[in-house]
Amino acid sequence: MCVRVLLCVVSIIGIVSTQDQDGILLIADVVDVVETTTEDNTPEICKVCDCGDGVLDCTKRKLVHSFTLDEWDQLKGLNIKEVDLSGNSIEMLTVISELPIERLNMSNNRIEMVDDWCFKYLENLSVLDLSRNELEDMNKRAFWGLLLPDSKIRPLSKMRHLSLAYNDLHVIPKDAFAFMHNLRFLDLSRNPLGIIDQVATGTLTELPFLRELLLSGCGLETLPDGLFRSLRRLERLDISNNKFTTVPAALNEAITLNFLNFDKNPITNLSEKTSISSLIRLRELRLCNTRLQRIGPGALGGLASLETLYICNNPRLTTIDEEFLNWKDDDGTDLWPALKRLYLHNNNISEIDPDFLFRWDQITDASFHDNPYVCDCNNQWMVDVLVPLITRINGSAADMICTKPQDVRGVSFAQLYETSKTLVCPQSADTAELPGSHTAVVLGVLIGIFAAFPLVLIIVLLWKKGHFAKCRKKVESESEEENDAL
C-alpha cells in the first residue's frame, strides 16, 4: 500500500513539475494529504510498553505514575488479557478502564496507596499481584466492585489469586475481601501483622472457597480460635518463620489441610500429641530450621494420610522417639502412616530407628545425611537394610558419616556396607577402647577386694565371739595395776 502511495505521489510530481507556479502549489497540497492519511494511531501506552498477542508488557520501564483512564481506553481494541507493570516506581495505583484483563502484575513497585474501587471495571480479573510494594494501610474499598444503580456492589467474582506479600501491612480491615468471595489463594506473607485480631479473623472467614493461605514471616505468636472454622476448603497453610513456641490449638479445626509448613519457628519440643495430630488429611508436613530438641512418642501420631515428612536442619534435635509417628486404633492396634518421602538430614540425631516406619519398602525418596551417627550394633540395620534401600531409590549413603566409636570415625555407611562391616555392641566397644594401664588398675582393684574379703570376715567373727572385749578388759586390768603401783 505504501509503495502505491509513493508511486502515485512521484507520478503527480512528475506531471505538475512542468506546470507553472500554480502547479507547484498543487504539489504541496498533495503532500499534505499524504501526511494526513499516514497519521500514527498507536496507543500512548504501547509507545512506552510492548503490546501484542493480548499482553501488555511494561516491566522495568522506569514508570512513576499509573496510566490515566483515557490512556487505558486506547487499549480497548487490542483484547489485552495480561498486564505486567512490575519493576517500576509507581507510588499510587489509580482506577483502570473496562478491559478484558485477567492477570495484573503490579509487584516490585513503590505503591503506597490503591484508589477506591481501583479494579471495579475489571470483571474478568482473576490474578492480582501487589507484592513487594510499600503498602502500610490496606484500603478496604480498593477491592470492591462496581457500584450498581440499585446501590448494590458488583463483586469481583472471577478473582482467584491475590498476593499482598512483602508490604508493610499491620492490620487487615473489616470487609477488605468482602467482594472477592471466590478467592482461592491469598498471600499475606512478610507483613508485620503481629497478631490476627478479631476483625482480621472475621475478614478471613469471609473467604469460604479459600484453598491456600500464606502467613509466613508475619511475627505471629498464636492463631485465634475459630480462624479455620469457616475455611472448610483450605488445603495448604504456610505459617513458617513466625514466633510459635507451641503448635497453635486453632489447627484442630483445620481438618481439611493436606499441606502444613511449620518451618523456622522457635518451638523446642514435641513431647506429646498436639493439634497437628488432628490433621487426618495432611499429606505433607514441614518441621525444618526450628529449635526442636526432642520429638516424643506419638507426637505426630494420627496422621493417617501423611506421605511426605521433612524434619531437617534442626541442629538441637538429638532425640526422635522410635514411636513418634505411631498411634493406636480403637482396638489397640498399632498404626503408622504410609510414608513415601522421609527427610531427616542435618539434625543432631545419632541413629535412624527401624521402628520409625512399619513399611520402609514403600519409601520412594529420602535423605539422612549430616547427622552425628554412632555406628554401633544398634545401627547395624542401617548398614544391612537402610543403605540398600537408599541405593534402590537412587539416593546416596556416602554422606552418612560415623562419628563414634573411634575405630570407624569418619567412615560412611556406604563404605560399611561395601565392606560388610559388623558393628560392635557398646559394651564390647567400651572394653576394647580401655588403655592397658586402665585395665591393670581395674584388675588390681578387683583382686584387692577379693583378697581383703576373708580378712574382714575373720575380724567380724572374732568380734561377735567377744575376743575384742576380753582383750580390752585385760588391757584395762594391767593399766589399773600399774596405777596402784605408782
UniProtKB/TrEMBL annotation:
Keyword Membrane: yes
Pfam families in the cross-refs: LRR_1, LRR_8
Gene3D superfamilies assigned to the protein according to its UniProt record, in alphabetical order: Ribonuclease Inhibitor
Signal peptide: 1-18
Keyword tags: Leucine-rich repeat, Membrane, Repeat, Signal, Transmembrane, Transmembrane helix
Domain of life: Eukaryota
Segments crossing the lipid bilayer: 440-463
InterPro entries for this protein: Dev_Immune_Receptor, Leu-rich_rpt, Leu-rich_rpt_typical-subtyp, LRR_dom_sf
This protein's name: Uncharacterized protein
